[in-house]
Amino acid sequence: MGRALRRRGTLRGPRVGPEDLERAAVFLAELAPQARQVFQYMLRNPGRTIHCTELVDKVLGGPNEGDPARRVAGVLSGMSKGRINSERRYPFYWWEAPEGSAGATYAVRPSVAAVFLAAQLGE
Fold first, then answer.
1. End-to-end alpha-carbon separation of the chain, Å?
2. Tens of pLDDT along 12-49?
3. What is the pTM of this model?
4. What is the rounded CA–CA span in Å between residue 45 and residue 109?
5. Which burial class, exposed, middle or buried, applies to 37 when counting CB atoms under 10 A from its CB (0-12, 13-18, 19+)?
6. Cβ-contact 93, 106 below 8 angstroms
7. Which of 14, 55, 75, 93 is 20 to 30 Å from 84 at the Cα level?
8. Coil, strand, or helix at residue 6?
9. Max Cα distance, the chain (Å)
10. Are 31 and 25 in contact (CB under 8 A)?
11. Containing H/E element for 105?
């Protein structure tokens, strides 16, 4: 990528690892519906950075009068209960927009996506 991004993500708790299938299932069960839809989209695109406008367009029904970055951030706040109850960090990273740009970018590591996809098969 030609731009400097600052990675963000909660540092509370350990990262999700291959031994965390049960914790991943707990996380998934606690997700608010729209948060689950956004997370599912990220899981289907592991390792790829996804801008908030793509999440709004592809998952949340397209743009509205609101700011896409705030809209996605509000939806993802529906993951906080799952994060707390799973005792793990959020299973994705986000990057602030570079100065002069708007909106955050999100990504899930392929190894983390594999754990959550396996947990879904066990549901």
1. 37
2. 678 888 899 999 999 999 999 999 999 999 999 999 99
3. 0.84
4. 9
5. middle
6. yes
7. 55
8. strand
9. 44
10. no
11. strand 105-107
**Residue 24 to residues 2, 91, 105: CA-CA distances in angstroms?**
33, 9, 22
Half-sphere exposure of 33 (CA within 13 A, CB side): 1
The pair of three-digit structure tokens given for residue 83, joined into one six-digit string: 């994060």
pLDDT tens for each residue of 51-99:
999 999 999 988 777 788 889 999 998 888 888 888 888 999 999 887 7
For residue 60, which amino acid is it?
L
Tokens 């594999």, located at residue:
114
- State the sign of the Cα–Cα–Cα–Cα dihedral 17, 89, 111, 58: positive
